[in-house]
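Predict fold of NAD-dependent succinate-semialdehyde dehydrogenase; 485 aa.
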Amino acid sequence: MEAINNVNLVKTQSYINGQWYASEEKFSVSNPANQQVIATLDDAGCAGVASAIAAAKSAFKSWSATSANERAKLLRRWYELMMEHQDDLASILTQEQGKPLAEAKGEIAYGAAFLEWFAEEAKRVYGDTIPAPSGDKRIVVVKQPVGVVAAVTPWNFPNAMIARKAAAALAAGCTFVVRPAQLTPLSALAMAELAEQAGIPAGVFNVVVGEDSRGMGKLLTESPDVAKFTFTGSTAVGKQLIAQCASTVKKVSMELGGNAPFIVFDDADLDAAVQGAIASKYRNAGQTCVCANRFLVQKGVYQAFSEKLAKAVAELKMGDGLAEGVAIGPMISEQAKHDVDKLVKASVEQGASVLCGGEADAAGSQFYQATIMTGVTNDMPIAKNEIFGPVAPLIMFDDEQQALAMANDTEYGLAAYFYTRDIGRVWRVAEGLEYGMVGINEGIISNAAAPFGGVKQSGNGREGSHYGLDDYTEIKYLCMGGLSA
Ligand SMILES: NC(=O)C1=CN([C@@H]2O[C@H](COP(=O)(O)OP(=O)(O)OC[C@H]3O[C@@H](n4cnc5c(N)ncnc54)[C@H](OP(=O)(O)O)[C@@H]3O)[C@@H](O)[C@H]2O)C=CC1
Ligand SMILES: O=C(O)[C@H](O)CS(=O)(=O)O
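Predicted 3D structure, encoded as tokens:
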């Protein structure tokens, strides 16, 4: 690995019960920018998962009994260490995932912000008292940690997707086992090293790495010792994991796929809309679940918006994320690049045009050009599927009603965006969109203070914000009787 100051952050073994876990089985991780192997890791497999669950179960008793103040202090220290090591963590992230270094630094700060946020929220897990139906009783509600939490996380945010889940779980008093995606395990293990340095006790935060996603996932979802399962990834895999969790009736939260509409009305500030579109569409090479997936543009500004967007896209430099000035890195795999190209070509066959891009890029075998398509309709493959790539399909609409109908015509319901300066329309459209999150004249909506999550087949549960703790606590009702004198 290049460009790392503190090599102690590069770990190649799972972190289980406060120990680095050796195994004979190996797997390797490559840099998506050039396919060079950057690390060979021990594959902990299902045996590692079983050990981690046992460790988390045994640590739960003491961790759940620590004071909120103590948990807050440790989370805060973990946050500080992440920020102290932001540059190295970002460099590891870029080399295993591909996103430009500036974006990777942003992800580390974003992930760390959840540790800071939940360090504070740990102290606010309030209960309730409820007036009882008779004078000799009192009703008290307390919140308790659910128990052992298991997580499976994706490759697109190798740090933040773990931080967002673990911070809430640990703050609530739960212990945690995560299996990160096999393509990006190094960021997860670097977080484990810093958790240990922060003083998080053995067994509270465990990271198990390996290639057997199906087998390891089965154990995490079916173990009776796991009380809650949390997943970020595709809707197809999410559905399968929910079904597996049914056997032990686990609490589940799911952050799944999206098909975000980005609506530009005739009265929008077009320069602001283009700026929002660039941020929303092209960061992480289009590989985020909240990336704008379809641009619905009103007839009167369609031409002007497409010209301005094309001008802005032409300035995006593509290349290795470690190189200066790069705005778009590689796709996560060659397969991902082919999948995006297939959607583009299939839509061209159905009548769409390519305004710019539309091909694999010469920068390397996993690069796809920043692309804009015009003449797209809402029923074309590029509009119906989650693209997860740097392609902006532009669809023309006539009026507000049609835009809303098109925007909601999908099984997904994660994020939506729209640009307008009409206050009445702001409320009508915001309320009419069937989505968990709506950006209004804004292309970047994620932060630790906000409830992140979707409706319909984009999942359930909310991460971040004060709502983010709810998924990790159980409500217990205490009925106190016999109080009459
Ligand atoms: N909501 C989001 O942020 C994300 C959405 N996606 C969507 O999914 C598409 C495909 O990406 P992909 O990486 O294949 O997404 P997946 O849903 O397959 O992968 C996400 C995570 O689930 C794991 N996983 C996969 N299959 C299983 C299984 N049967 N049991 C347990 N864990 C499993 C993966 O592990 P491993 O990688 O080691 O196999 C990874 O850790 C993308 O193009 C995008 O549309 C993808 C990632 C994130
Ligand atoms: O899942 C998330 O938190 C977001 O996709 C992060 S971002 O893309 O909005 O930065």
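The pocket of LO4QSZO4 (ligand 2) is lined by residues 157, 160, 288-290, 446, 452 (CB under 6 Å).
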